[in-house]
Predict the 3D structure of the following.
Amino acid sequence: MFDKILIANRGEIALRVLRACRELGIQTVAVHSTADADAMHVKLADESVCIGPPAAKDSYLNIAAIVAACEITGAEAVHPGYGFLSENAKFAEILTEHSIKFIGPSAENIRTMGDKIEAKRTAKALGIPVVPGSEGGVSNLEDAKRVGKDIGYPVIIKATAGGGGRGMKVANNESELELAVSTAQSEAKAAFGNGEVYIEKYLQKPRHIEVQVLGDGQGSAVHLGERDCSLQRRHQKVWEEAHSPALNPEQRDAIGNRVAKAMANMSYEGVGTIEFLYEDGEFYFIEMNTRLQVEHPVTEMITGLDLVQEQIRVASGNKLNYKQSDIQFSGHAIECRINAENWQTFVPSPGKVDAVHFPGGLGVRIDSALYSGYRIPPYYDSLIGKLIVFGKTRTECLMRLRRSLSEFVIEGVDTTIPLFQRLLGEEDIINGHYDIHWLEKFLARTAQ
C-alpha cells in the first residue's frame, strides 16, 4: 500500500479521495490554485502545494507543476479524481516515467477508449453491442451522405475527441446533414483542437444506462451493476439512480457480465464505466469513461463497496479478492447534482456562501466541500455538492429524497435544489418513465 498520495483535483471529489486515503492510513497531499487556497480539501490534507493561478490550464492541468509537487512532497502516487487530467494518457505516461503511480488504467487503455472511434472498434471486437454508424471518421459530405443512407435517418454527428455534448449535432434528413456536419466539425475543432467527426444512428427515445466495472489489471474484472443517467440537460447528467427502473435482474446480469468479461480481456486496471443507450430492450455502446464517475456514490450505496479505496488497492498491486458471485446488490439509490446555478436559466452563481445546512438521517449522504463563509470561485465547474439517498425500495428512496431536499439549505448563491423538488412532483419521475430527452422537454414547459 502507498504511504502518501497526491490528489490532483479540487472540490468535492478531492475531499472524497482524501477521506478514502485517511481511512486506509495513507497521508495526503492537496494541490490547489491560488483561488482554492481556502478550500476544504486543502485545510484537511496532511500537506498542500500551490501549483498556479486560478486558470485550470495554469494549475490543475499543469502537468509539470503536479509532478514537481509529487517530488517535493515525496508522494508515491497520484489520484486524478474526475475531469482535469483524469483521462489524459500523456499525464499517466509522464508520471510513470518519474516512478509515480497513476491511480487508474494504463495509458494505453486511456488512449484507446478516449478516442471515440477506436473505442467503438475495440468495444465491437470485445463483443460489446454498438450503435450502427460510420466505421471511422467522416472527412467529407459525400461520405456522410453514404453513411446516412446506409443506416437511415435521423443520425447524430459526434466529435471523435469530444465529450459533454460539444461537437454533437442531429440531422433528421439528408438536407440537414451538410449544416450539421460542418457545425459539428467547427465546434469540435474549437473545443478539442480536433475537428474529426463520426456518424451514428440517432435513437428516438433511449435511456442512458452505464455499467460500472472494476478490474485489477491482472486479468480479473467484475461489474457493479448499472446506473440510469437519463435525466440530462445538454448531454450533462443531472440525476442518477441505481438500479435503473427500466431493467430487470436478467438484463442487468447479461450486459454486466458481458462488460466485465471484456474488461478482463483488456487487463483493465481500476474503475471504469461503459456507457450505453438503451432502447426497446437493446443496448448500444456509446463510450467508456476510464476514471471515477461523478455518480459513483449510488453504486457504493447499493453494493457497500468504497470505489476509491478499491482504486487505490488495485493500483498498489493487489488482485481482486472477490468474484462476481460475491457482489451483492441491495436497495435503491439516487444522486442529485447540486450546482451553483439558477435552476431555470442554468446561469452560474459563484460567490460567498452565507450559510449551509446539510440534511441527514438514515440513508442520506452528502458529498460536498462547502462550508459557511466559503467563496465559490468563478473559474471552475459549478458542481458544489451531491445529495445521495438510499432506500430499501425506489419508493422509499424517493420519499427520503423529498424529505432531504426540504432540509437542504445553501444561502448566498443560487442552486439547483428547487429543480429537484419540482422533479419529485412529476408523475413520470415517480414512475421511472423518462428518457434522455425528458428533462429538456420539462424545462421548456416550465420556462413558458
